Amino acid sequence: MAFWKFLISCLVVVVVTLAPVLCDILDGVCQTGGGNTSITYQACAPAASALTRSAPFNLTIIPESATCGDPPTTFCSKTWQFGCLEFDTCDRNNPDKSHPKDFLVDDSMETYWASISASSRNELKVVIQLSFDKLYELSGTIALLFFSGRPREMIIEKSIDHGASWTVLQYYSQDCTKYSGVARSKGDLTTTNPTAVICTGDYTTAEPYTGGIVKFDDRHLMFLGPTLSDYQNLFNALENDPNFHTFLSFTGIRITLLIPPAQGGFYGISNIDISGKCSCNLHASSCSLVNGFTVCNCSHNTEGKDCERCLPMYNERPWKRGSYLGEANECQKCECNEHAQSCTYDPVYMRGVCDNCFHHTKGFHCQECIDGYYHNTSLPLNDLNTCTLCDCEPLGVTQGSVGCSQTPDGDKPIGQCPCKPQITGRRCDVCVDGFYGLLVGDQPGECKPCNCNTRGTVGGSTTCNKETGQCPCKPSTDGRLCSVCKPGYHGFPLDVTQECTACGCDWGGSMSEVCDAVSGECNCRDKVQGVKCSQPEPGTYFPFLDVNALDPVSGTCTLDSAMQSTLSHDGQSFARCQSSQSVVFADVAGQIRQPQIQWPYRLAVRYSHNSQLPWPSGTLTVTTSRISGITDTSEYLSKQTEPINTSLCTGIGQTKTWTVDFQPGSGVAWLSSVGDEVILDVRCQYRFTLVVGQKDLNEVNDDIVIDSIVPLPSLSQYPSYRSADNETKLQYDECVTNVAALSTRSQHVQSPTCRALSFSVGTQINLGASDCGCDQVGTQLGTQCNGFGGECACKPGVAGRTCNTCDLGYYNFTDSGCTACNCDQTGSQNGVCDIRTGQCPCHTNVARYGEITRDDVVAGTLCNVCKVNHYGFAEGSGCLPCNCSSLGSQKQQCDEEGQCTCKDTITGLQCDVCEPGYYNFTVTGCLACDCTSDGVVSSDCNKDTGVCTCRTNVMGDRCDQCKPGYFNLLHSDPNGCQKCFCYEHGTPCTSAGGFVEAFVFTESTQFWEVASSFDSNYIMAPTEFLAYQARSYNQPLSFEMMTGSGSVQLSGRRPIILESQGVQIHSQQDEEITSLEVTTITISLHEDYWYYSNDTQVTSSHMQRTLADLQAIYVRKLYDPVIVTVRNFQMKSAAEAIEGDGRPPVGYVEQCSCEPAQGVTGLSCETCSEGNRRPTNTSSRFESCVPCDCNDKQDGAAILCNETTGECLNCRNGTEGLNCEKCAPNVVDSSECDVCMDNYWGLFKEGCIACNCNDIGTIAATICEKSTGKCSCKDHVTGRQCDVCQDNYFNLTSAGCTVCDDCYVLVETEVNELRQMRDNLTSHVQVLKDNDKNAELGRFTERLNKAVTDLNDLQQFVDDAKNMEVTTADTLSDLNATLIILLADLEGNTAIVATIASELRQARVNVDVSKGAVNAIKGTVNTALMQLEALRLESRKITDLVNTLVSMNQEFSTMAGATANELQRLDGEVSAIENVVTDANNVSSASLEMATQTSNALGAVTSRVGALQASVNQLNSLVTMINSSAAGSLTRVKDQTDSFTAINEQVANLAVPSESVAKNLQSQASQIRQSAQSLREQALENAQSTTLTSQVSRAVTQSADLLGNIRVVLSTSEILLEQVRSAAVRAEEAATMASNAFTAAEDMRSTLLSFSAIIADLKQQAQNSLNTVMEIRNLSEAAIQTAQALREQLRVAFNNAQLAHQQMMTAEALQRSKRDALSPVNDLANQLQTDSSGVLNDLETQAGRIIAANSTYVQVGDSTCKSEQPLLSEARNSSEAAKLKAQEAFTKVSITKDRAESLLQSLQNLQEIDVARIQQLKDEIQANREYFDQRQLAAVVTELRNKVQAQKDWIDSAVVRKEQLQLDIQNLRATQSQLVHN
Questions:
Q1: How far is CA 252 from CA 145, 963, 1221, 1371, in A?
Q2: Rounded Cα gap, residues 257 and 127, in angstroms
Q3: Judging by beta carbons within 10 Å of its beta carbon (0-12, 13-18, 19+), is residue 968 exposed, middle or buried?
Q4: What is the pLDDT of residue 323?
Q5: Phi, psi angle pair for 1579, to nearest 5°
Q6: What's the pLDDT band for 1507 if we cut at 50, 70, 90?
Q7: What is the Cα gyration radius of the chain?
Q8: CA 1141 to mean position of chain CA atoms
C-alpha cells in the first residue's frame, strides 16, 4: 500500500506542476477605484480549481449495473504480468466491500470505483458522465487515476448544451487506425490547430498494472512556449480564435470506457480530476451557489447566469464579452437623470433611450417636465422633485386660473401664477405688506389693512402678519394691535421708544408672575416679603439647593467621619472605598419636600480621589419600594398639574442605574446629565447604592472617599429656570454644577445667581419661607438663623442647622454646648466620639473605656493605647494581636514591634517557628537539622519532619546522597551533585577511586594558531586541551588577560568559545581588560555559565557531550584595534593516582554502572565491552555497541573483535576474514573450516602449512599427518619432515641414516629423561596459560599484594574483635551484675524505688557502650524530657492562674474599698434625704394641722348656723348658690348679707394659712428637685469614673441615686396644698373639700411615715451589701490561700512527675483540676447574684410602690384640680414632672440591674476550681509514679535484657566469622606458598 500512496502522490505532483498559470493571469479584481476615485475596469475570470471537488455536478454510470457488487463477486484486484497478486470481493450491500461511483470523486487514494468484470477481455463498454449545472472552461487537464490497469481503449467527450450533443475531445486506443481522419500523436497538435481531436496510445499500455493515469492534456501549454511564460501568445489565441474558447467550454464531461485492461478484465478508478473554472464571459472573478445553482458573481454592470447581458440601466452600448487582452468591455449606464429604472439601446439613435420616465418627467433622457408642472431651477435635473406642481392659490388668481408659466417672463419667475390686486407670490397666496387675511377672516379672497399701534410695535412698524393680522409687538406688549402690556409687565409706553416695565416677581417667592398693573407690587407667598417677593421675613429662611444630601449608612466600604480628614465633606460621615466595594446611603422616604407628588432630580455624587489618574467608573443604582404607612398627600393635590392616584406608590421594585465617572480631585462631584434624572415620589421609599469601579491588579492600591449623594431639583421644571434667557440658564446650570462639588460649593452658594436660584426653588417647594426652628438649648441666646440656608448660631461644639446636636468631635449636649472628644489621632478611627458617653471610636484592638491595656492598667475613652497582648499602636491603623505562641514564648505580651520573647532555638515574630537550622517545634525548643552542608540549599530544614531542603541533584533527609544518575556531592556544585555522563549508557554512577587533581596548563599562548577558518580574531588551543576532557566537567577553566594599551570591555564580546560536533558555545563575561593590570578570567565548565549562539543556556547533557569530544577552544585575542595578551591558560582535570603522589584525590571522575544490554564498559561506558563493537566505523561513543559477528567461529567461548571495525580478533584456527567467514589458506572449504587440504597440516590461524616432507627421509613424499604435520619417516629417520637422523644415527641419504658408535648409547638414557622433563614443563606452562585469569582479574602481583593487605586488615580486625570481645564481656558482666541486683531488689522489696531509679541511671551509663541500648534509653529520656517540659508548661499555666487569683484578690480588695467609700457617701446622701423628708414630713404635718383647724372652724360654722335659726333659709340659699358656681371666689362670699359676716371672717381666716402652707410646700418641693438633680449629676459622674470591676458597688450606688430621684415625688404635696387653698374659695364646698383634704393628708402622712421605714430598710440593705462585699473579700482571700496551697501541692506533684516520667496523665489531671478549681469563685458569684438580685428586686418593689402611691395621689390631685384648672396648672406640671422623674428612676434601676446581672453572668462563666480535687490529684500522681516504677521499669529491664541477648548473639556470630576468616587466611597462605615454590 505504501507503494501505491507514493505513486499517487507523484502523479498529483505532476498534475499540479503542469497545471497552467492562465488562471493566475485572469484571477483578481474586476475593477478598482470607487468612492472618491474613478472606477477602472479590467477583464477577469474565476480562479481555476478541481471541479470534482468544488463544483456541483451529477455523476452517472451507464449502465448502472456496470458497477460491481450486485451480486457479490470476487475479482483479481491487483495483477502483474504473470497473473494475479491479490483478490478482492465486491459487495454493494457491504460498505466495507463496496466500490460505488462516489469513490470516483471522493479525493481519496484509498478508495476506488470498480466495474463488473468483462465477460470477454476484448470489450466492456461503460460510460461515466459528469453533468454540471452551468458552462465551465477547462483550464488544465482531465486526469483519471486507475486502481486497475488502464483501459486499452476509451474516449473523452464534452457537451456545451447540457448533454443534448457531445463532442469528442480525445481518443485513447492501442489501435488508433480505427479512428480515420484523426491525428495519432500529440505532435500533430500545434498552435494553428489547438482544437484538433487526436488519438493516442500513450495511456493504454499494460504497465503500470495499478496506479496508472490517463490524461487529457492542457491545450494552453503549447502557446506558452518552452519556458511556459509567453502569456501574450496564449491570450491572442484565445481572443482571436473563438473555436479554441468553445473547444475548452463544457457543461458536461463523458468518459466512455471501451476495452478493459488485459490483466484483471475490469475498470477500477480511484479519482477523476478536472481542472477548470466557471465561464463568465470574463465579467466575473468568482461564482457561487444561489438556490442550489451555480451562477457567476457578475461585475462590469452585467448580469445573468454567465454574465451574458447588461443590467437594465446599462444599455448605453451593446453587451460584449470581455477581452483576454485586458479590455473589460463593461456595460455603460444610460443617462436618465435618475428618473427611470431601465433603458433600451436604440441602434438608430446609437445610444440608450430611457424607458417609462417617472417623477413627472419625459424625453429620451427624462429631461423635461410633463404638463401642469414646471422645472424647479434650484434643483438639479436628477432630483426627485425637479418637476414641481404649479399649485396656484384659487382665491388669489384671476378668473380661477390654475396654470403657471413654463419659462421665465421678464421679472416673473418660471412657474408664476396670475394674481389679483394687493396679492403677490408665485402662487398668488399672500397679501402685499400692510395687508392681511387673504385666506382667513370675514372676507376671504381679499386682503385687509393691518392698523397696528406703533407705540407697541417693534420699531413703530405698521406691517402685520399677512395671515393672522398680528402686529409685531414689543417684548412687553400684547394684543393683535400691540396696544396693551403683557401679563407680568405694567405701564404701557408713551412713545415708540419705550417698553412696558417688567414685574420681576420672584418665581418662587410670589404667588404668580403677574404684578399689580399700576404699582408693580407682587403677590408674595407665606413669610416672604419685598416688592418682588425676594426676601424671607425675619425669623424665617429658605434652604440651599443641596439641602437633601444623603450620608452613607452601610455597605462594604468603610464608614468614617471627617474629624481627621483633610478632605472636603458634609454631613456626619463618609465612606472609604476600595476596588469594587459598595456604599448604601440613607433612604429617601417622603421626607423631601417638592412642588408635586412626583418630581425629577439630578443626582450628584460627592467624592474625593487624590490621584493623577481617574478611578474606574462605578454604578449608581436606585431601588424603589413601598413606604411604610400612608403618606399625607393633601398638600400636593392643589399643585398637581395632572390627575394622579394619591394613595399608591408607583414603580415598586423598579431600579435605575447610572454610570458614574470618577475624575481625580478633592471635593469634586459627578452630576447626572440633564434628561437623565430620577423621579422621586413622596409616596415611595428609595434606596441609593453606589458600587465603585474595579481597579486593575497592577494599579496603585489607594482608596476613593465617597462623601454623599445629593438629589438636586431638576431646574427644567421650575418657572424661574424656564423663563430665564439662555445666558441666565447657563449661569443657573453652572450654579447647580458648582454647588454639587464641595470644593466649589462655598464659593458659589453665596453668589447672587445661586442665591436667587436657591430662593426661588426653595420658596416654591415650601410654598414660602420656613421658620428657623433653632434649638434653644444649643443656640446662642438672642440670635436668629441666617435667612439663606437657615443656619442657626450654635454654641461651642454644637452643630446642625438648628443647633440640635453635638458637632463631630464633641459630646454631652447641654446648655453650655458640647465637650470636645479629644480622641487620640493615632488610636481612634476619627475624632468623632460617642455623642453621649464620649467614647472615641478606637481602631481594632485599641483599648476602649474599662479595658486592660498592654501596660496592665485600665483604659479611658481616648483610644490612646493598645489592649493587653497587642501591639502596633503607632501605625495608626489599630493594634495587632501579639499571638505569642504558648509553647515558644516566655510571655504573652510582645514589644511594640510585635516581637514576642522567644525561648532558645525558637524564633519568629510570635515565637512559633524554629530558628533556621532547627526543627520539631516543642515546648523544650527545637532540634538541630543536621543537614549536610554540601547538599542543601540552606542550612534550614522542614520545620515538622526535619527533612533538609536539598539542591537540585541531591536527595536524602539530610541531603547527603546524590540522586540516581548523579554523583560527587560537592559544596561548590550549584546543583549539589554532578550528572552522570556515561555516554548516556547508564544512569547510576559513583565517584571513581584512584584519581587525583590534575591540570592541563600552558604558560604562553604565543604559538597558538590563529583560527582563520573560524574567526581571525581568535586563536586556537593546542591538542592537549582537546579531545576527551569530560573529567574537566564542573571544574574551572582559567586564563589571564592583559592589553598592551587601551582597554577592552568583554561584555557581549564572547572571549572564549568551545566547539564540538560543529556546535559552538560561549561564556558571558563582563570584565574590563586594561593595560594597567592582569585580569584573571575563571569560568566553571558547567552548563550554568555557557550559552549557545542565540544566548540560550546550554543544557547539562550538551555540556558533557562537548567536553567528551572537545574539538576546538577559541580564545579571542583581537578586539579591534586592541590586542589582548592571553597567558597561563589552564583547565582543571583528573589523572590516575601514582603511588607516592601527593596530589589531593578527587571525586569528580565517574564510575558508571553501564547498561549490559548496550554492550559498553569503562569508567564512562566509553568503550565496547568484550564481544561487542561499534555499529559502524563512524559511530560515536554515544551509540550502543552491538555484538561482534564472528559466525560462531571464534577461538574459545569469548568473542573478541576490533571495537571500531568489528574485525574478529580470535578467529578459530582455520578461519579468516573480517567476521571469520572464510576458510584460511590450504584449509578445505567447508562450513567448519576444520580440515587441512591434502599435503597440509596444522590448522593454524594463518591456515594449514605444507607438509614439505623430506623426499630422502620419507616413505611417501608430501604426505604427512594433518594434525601434527608428521611425515612418514624411514627407519632411523626422525623429525616432523623426516629430515634428521635419530639419536645415535647420522648422514641421512637416500639409503637412510648410518648408525653411530656405541659410546653414544650411554648418554641416551639421560637425554630421554631430560626430554621428558622438558615435555612436562611445557605441559605445565600450557596449563597455566589456559587457566590465566589476569585479563579478567588484573595482574597477579597486584592481586597478590591486595590479598596480603586484606589478610593483614583481616588479622587486625580479628585482633580488634578479640579486644572488643573482652571489653564487651566485661561491660556485659557489669551490666548483668547490675541487672541481677535490680531484679533482686524489684522482686524482694518495691519500697526502694528511688534506689532502683538511681541504679537504673547507672545501668544506662554502663549500657552506653552498646549502641542499640543507648538509642533505646536515649529515646525514653527524650520522651520523658518532652513530657516534663509539657508539664512545666502546665505548671506555668497554674502559676498564671495563681497570679490571676492574686490579681482578682487585689481587684476584689479595690472593689471592697470602693464599695465602702460608695456606701459611706450613700449613707451621707441618705441622711441628707432623710433630712429633706423630715422637713417635708413637718410641712405635711403642718398641713394636716391646718386641715384640722379648718375642720374645726367648719364645725364652729355649723354650730353657728344651728344657733341662728332665723337665718337658716338665707344660709341655705347662700350655700346652694356657692355649690352651683364652679369658679366662685372670696369676693363672691363678701357680697353676702351682713348677718353672715362672722362666717365670712372665719372663712377668710382659713384662706391665709392655706396660701402660706402652699408656698412652704412649693419651697420644699423646689429643694427636693434640686437635691434630685444633684444626685443625678453625681450618679452620672460616678457612672463615668467607675470601672468595670466596680459594677457591683455601682448597683448599690445607683440604687441610692434612685432613692434620691424618687424623693421628687414629694412635689405632689403642692397638689394637696392647692386642695386646701381651694377650700377657702368655695364656702359651701368647704366642708367637703376640707374632709377630702383631711383624708388625703392622713394618707400622705402615712406615706411619709413609711418613707422613714423604707429608708431604714434601704440602709439595712446597703449594710447587707457591704457585708456581702466583705464576705466576697474574705472568700477571695480564702481562694488565694487555697490557690497558694494548690500551687505548693502542684509543685510537689511536678517533682513527683519528674521522677515518674509520666506527664500525659498528670497533664490531664491538671486540666481537670484547673477546670474544677474555680468552684469557690463560682460560689461567690452565685452568692453575689443572689444578694444583688435581692437588693435589685427590693429596689424594684420599692420603686413600684412609690410609683403606685405617686399615681394614686396624682390622680386624686388631678380630680380635685379640674374644678379650679387655672389655679392648679402649675401644680399639674409639677406632678407630671414628678411622674417622669419617677419613671426615669425606675428605668435606671432596670439598667443597673441588667448591668449587675451581666457582670454576675461573666463571673459565672469563669471555669470552676474544685479545691477538693487537689488531694485527688496528689493521689493520682502517686499512683502513676508507682505504676511507672513497677510497670515501666520492668519493661525497660526487659528491653535491656533483649539488647544484651542480641549483642551476645552478634558476638557469637562474630566469633564464627572470625574462625572462618582465620581458616580462609590459612588456605590463602598455603596457596601463596605453593605458588612461590612453583
A1: 19, 75, 69, 114
A2: 6
A3: buried
A4: 92
A5: -65, -40
A6: very low
A7: 65
A8: 65
**Dmax of the chain from CA atoms?**
228
Whether the per-residue pLDDT at 1762 is higher than 60: the answer is no
Helix, strand or coil, per DSSP, at residue 1354: helix
Nearest alpha carbon to residue 1693 among 256, 1105, 1685 = 1685
Q: Are 330 and 324 in contact (CB under 8 A)?
A: no
Percent above pLDDT 70 for the chain: 70
Strand 817-820 and strand 989-991: the pairing is: unpaired
Three-state DSSP string of 672-692: CCCCCCEEEECCEEEEEEEEC
486 and 477 in contact (C-beta within 8 Å)?
yes
Pick the closest to residue 537 from 836, 873, 770 (CA basis). Answer: 770
Res. 1546 pLDDT band, cuts 50 70 90: very low
The half-sphere exposure of 828 on its side-chain side, counting CA atoms within 13 A, is 28
Question: What is the pLDDT confidence band of residue 1673, given thresholds at 50, 70 and 90?
Answer: low
Cβ neighbours around 1349 below 10 Å, total: 10
Q: In the predicted model, is pLDDT for residue 601 greater than 60? A: yes
> Are 397 and 418 a contacting pair, CB within 8 Å?
yes
Q: How far apart are CA 1220 and CA 1233, in angstroms?
A: 10
Q: Which residues, in sequence order, are CB contacts of 487 under 8 Å at separation 6+?
A: 478, 513, 514
Q: Are 1571 and 1480 a contacting pair, CB within 8 Å?
A: no
Among the listed residues 590, 687, 686, 593, the one whose alpha carbon sits nearest the alpha carbon of residue 631: 590
CA-CA distance, 1627 to 1523, in Å (whole number)? 8
Residue located via cell numbers 498559470:
21
- 383-425 pLDDT tens trace: 999 999 988 888 888 876 767 887 888 888 888 888 888 888 8
Lowest mean pLDDT among 367-371, 424-428, 1835-1839: 1835-1839
What are the grid coordinates assigned to 701, written together?
Answer: 492600591
Model confidence pLDDT, tens digit, residues 496-512 = 899 999 998 998 899 88
Confidence class for position 286, pLDDT limits 50, 70, 90: very high
- What is the pLDDT averaged over residues 1377-1396? 50
- Number of CB atoms found within 10 A of residue 624's CB: 22
* 1811 SS3 class: coil
Give pLDDT, residue 1743: 39
Q: What is the mean pLDDT of residues 658-679?
A: 92
Round to whole Å and give the CA distance between 312 and 320.
15
Q: Phi/psi zone of residue 1335: left (φ > 0), alpha (ψ -120 to 50 degrees), beta?
A: alpha
Type and span of the H or E element at 1134? strand 1122-1136
- Find the mean pLDDT for residues 1444-1454: 50
Residue 275 CA to residue 21 CA, distance in Å, equals 12
Q: 5: which 3 cell numbers?
A: 500512496
Distance (Å, whole) CA 1597 – CA 1591: 10
C-alpha grid cell for residue 1104? 558533557
For residues 1463 and 1662, the answer to whether their CB atoms sit within 8 Å is yes
Cα separation, 117 vs 98, in Å, equals: 15
The residues facing 1215 across adjacent strands are 1223
* CA dihedral (1647, 1649, 1653, 1655) positive or negative: positive
Question: Rounded to whole angstroms, how far apart are CA atoms 182 and 1581?
Answer: 134
156: CB partners within 8 A, 6+ apart: 142, 168, 169, 170, 172, 216, 253, 254, 255, 256
Q: How far apart are CA 386 and CA 337, in angstroms?
A: 10
Query: Got the DSSP string for 1739-1754?
Result: HHHHHHHHHHHHHHHH
| The three three-digit cell numbers of residue 691, written as one number | 458600587
Residue 115 has what pLDDT?
Answer: 94
Do the Cβ atoms of 545 and 522 come closer than 8 Å? Answer: no
**Which of 210, 203, 205, 204 has its CA nearest to residue 79?**
210
pTM: 0.35
